[in-house]
Amino acid sequence: MRLSTVILPVRRWSEGGRERWQRAEQLGFHTAYTYDHLTWRVPFRDGPWFGAVPTLTAAAATTSRLRLGTLVTSPNFRHPVPLAKDLITLDDLSDGRLTLGIGAGGSGFDATVLGGQPWTPRERADRFAEFVPLLHRLLTEDEVSAEGTYYTAHEARGLPGCVQRPRIPFTVAATGPRGLRLAARYGQSWVTTGEPGGKESGTPDATLATLARQTEALAKACAEAGRDPATIGRTLLTGLTSDRLLDSLDAFVDFAGRLDALGFDEIVVHWPLPGTRFEADETVFERIATEGLAQLGHDPTAQR
User: Fold this and answer.
1) Residues forming a β-bridge with 102
2) What is the CA 58 to chain-centroid distance, rounded?
3) CA 242 to CA 197: how far, in whole Å?
4) For the packed helices 17-26 and 52-62, what is the interaxial angle rounded to 10 degrees?
5) pLDDT single digits (tens) 224-249
6) Which of 6, 15, 119, 234 falls 20 to 30 Å from 22 in CA-CA distance?
7) Do 33 and 5 touch, CB atoms closer than 8 A?
8) Gap between the Cα atoms of 110 and 38, Å rounded
9) Greatest CA separation found in the chain?
10) Taking Cα atoms as reference points, which of 246, 166, 162, 174 lies closest to residue 204?
11) Structure confidence by residue, pLDDT tens digits, 103-118
């Protein structure tokens, strides 16, 4: 089991931003992720919000062991060709500590900020099905030419390639059949948030039941792809459903133990942010970071 965190890109680097990433490393988190949006939902839309790639670049320069990543990057405002160049560069700058969380995107602010209409769910799925394989090629081949319905590459160069071989790992966000098939084929791990809207209407038991169904669907997608389901990681991004695992160390241990039994091997918790849905006691948060895995019987130093 690994414990990771999400640091929202809302602080100036000189006003607490740097310290958050350094503290994440000191606390022993496996990975520190950030969201890859141009802006996000209320209340964040009208406040500070910094870019994911520059933020991760700065974090790479100020840490040495902590893995870094996005949860998640999407096609909403990204094209595989320039994204691949950014990722190869960031993988090099971090000395191979980068993970790409990648998803199909949504219908929120990122979907309309460039002036277009939001894509339908089917179009998002179609684009994702084209985006992921092309990005995979761009990160593993020296030169790529491809012409798709949505994305084209003409003699795109990928030299010198990723530090991590054959490429940086993908953590694929998916809950539907098409997305799970992409995860089974291209993902080193799979990430879910549980049931959308569950924070308002669900219960922890309902969340766990949803996660059980989703892991069964992932196993089926792996079987169809001829892949051993044990070879793909399972990540839960918490804080967006009804889980209350940051309320106390005991609450974390109870919920995380039940996730462990379902086969999840990474739990991601949001760094506390006062006045938002991610508000939590920082003292409890740090106790969870330093003691939670040990309470589950896992060696907390093994993830470092």
Assistant:
1) 73, 172
2) 18
3) 9
4) 50
5) 999 999 999 999 999 988 788 999 99
6) 234
7) yes
8) 6
9) 54
10) 246
11) 999 888 898 989 988 9
Place of tokens 């084929």: 185
């219960």: which residue's tokens?
Answer: 203
Strand positions, DSSP E, the chain? 2-6, 31-34, 67-73, 98-102, 143-147, 152-157, 170-173, 189-192, 233-237, 266-270
> Cβ distance 129 to 58 under 8 Å?
no
H or E, element range at 58: helix 52-62
Q: Which residue has the tokens 């949504």?
A: 106
What the block records as the tokens of 257 is 């133990």
User: Nearest-CA neighbor of 231 among 192, 283, 267, 186?
Assistant: 186
- pLDDT level of residue 201 (50, 70, 90 thresholds): low
- Residue count of the chain, please give it: 304
The amino acid at 261: A
Distance CA 201, CA 64 (A): 40
What are the backbone dihedrals phi and psi of residue 171, each rounded to the nearest 5 degrees, phi first? -110, 105
Q: What tokens were used for 262?
A: 């379902």
- CB-based burial, 100-123: b 16+ in 10 Å, e otherwise: bbbbbbbeebbbeeeeeeebeeee
The type of residue at 90 is L
Residue 34: phi and psi, rounded to 5, are -140, 160
Token pair listed for 1: 């089991």
